[in-house]
Amino acid sequence: MPRNAVVGVDIGTSSSKGVLVDAGSGAVLRSAVREHAVDRPGPGRFEMEAGVWWEEFTGLARELTAGLGPDRAVAAVGISGMGPCVLLTDDGDTPLRPAVLYGVDTRATAQIDRLNDELGADEIVRRCGSALSSQAAGAKIAWVADEEPAVFARARRLYMPSSWLVRQLTGAYVLDHHSASQCTPLYDTNALNWYGPWAGRIAPGLELPPLRWSGEAAGTLTPAAAAATGLPAGIPVTTGTIDAWAEAVSVGAQGPGDLMLMYGTTMFLVHTVPDAALLTSPALWSTVGALPGTRNLAGGMATSGAVTSWLRELFGSAGYGELLRLAEESGPGANGLLMLPYFAGERTPLMDPLARGVVAGLSLSHTRGDLYRAALEGTAHGVRHNIEAIEAAGGDIRRVVAVGGGTQGALWTRIVSDVTGRPQELRATTIGASYGGALLAAQLVGDARIDDWNPVAETVEPDPAATARYDELYALYRELYPASAGVVHALAARQHR
């Protein structure tokens, strides 16, 4: 009998990643990546063509399964993707425009203001769990309706990267509950369903998808999808979810008190609270979890790895290894530099789409290593700010689990532990969302358990001396935003002209 394997694929902001995993042990047998860029058609706007998602999935699936011998059989597929995104199609599933991406896209500020006035900001939080922000997919739908009425008049279905792939693979039109809960104000987090009165008002004519939990089977692979991907027809495909929640699955961070910290293009935090506790905060997102019986307080920084990538591009030939070495040499405090990493606005806890990056303390003596260190430390300060907001909202963080590409190289995770004063667990496999998708796929066909698949490998402990030094810098970090906001907002307004 061949041994079962599962495929997990995640559509991310800068790349799509896939893994082939042994369904019994969790061992990664193969991995593959397709890098891509998002479109930026104007200030504050981030878009992507849906065709890229399917093209990259088919390429990844074929690469991961090419030449598999008779001892291996792909038994299931797990999906995840960036989000919440808004891809609108006509009744024949033809995309009507590029997908509007998640909270990095800040175009819908006027719609947020209008919906708050019409529906009531407090009532939105009470029913939907979260205040309207650039993260809210419902506001982006309203933007299309307002600004592109001819497009919206033809719109019949709503997709995100994960649900679009599910549609191509199985023919099913479904969305997971967690992704729906980020479609504020269309989803009622108390009733666990679309809220008809507001959905009909904001998205008239849209056939909103039926809802399932992330680990449920959406359907089985069609013969046409099998021909396109090289995967076996008839195998189950998960409903899938947004990437950060699949990341949490990949490291077992779904218990009450857990905080998943995702190091990626953006920094994401997902704190699990007891199911009975619908905690809300205007500075955070309160969502339904990826799995039944879970709820989350979540935060997200608009940039993190995106800033380090930008610096690497500016520095030319310098690779990440060299920059990490130089940042290590710079030492705590980056020789007197302090960075606000708000290069694409900021999501939580500021909820300020007009925030911008600030580097304070520059002198002619500062080096590439100092700037790179300041970027790592700036994101760490942002993590601490979010953690404080979570606890202020009633969260009880008992364990921090780190995941994502930024955990490689040790320096960034060490800086975050030093700045926050909190240890972080690192599991043996930190690939992230694609691995979480594979785990959910394996659970469709067997008894896969995270502690067997992916045990804790190490714990990053904070250095008390470094934490004391960072306490002083964090106080300055918190002062810098209000002190510079007026100037920064005026400059941001010029960028939109």
From TrEMBL:
One of its GO terms (molecular function) is kinase activity. PROSITE patterns: FGGY_KINASES_2. InterPro entries: ATPase_NBD, Carb_kinase_FGGY, Carb_kinase_FGGY_CS, FGGY_C, FGGY_Carb_Kinase, FGGY_N. Residues 260-442 form the Carbohydrate kinase FGGY C-terminal domain. Residues 6-247 form the Carbohydrate kinase FGGY N-terminal domain. Keywords: Carbohydrate metabolism, Kinase, Transferase, Xylose metabolism. The keyword Protein biosynthesis does not apply. Belongs to the FGGY kinase family. This is Sugar kinase.
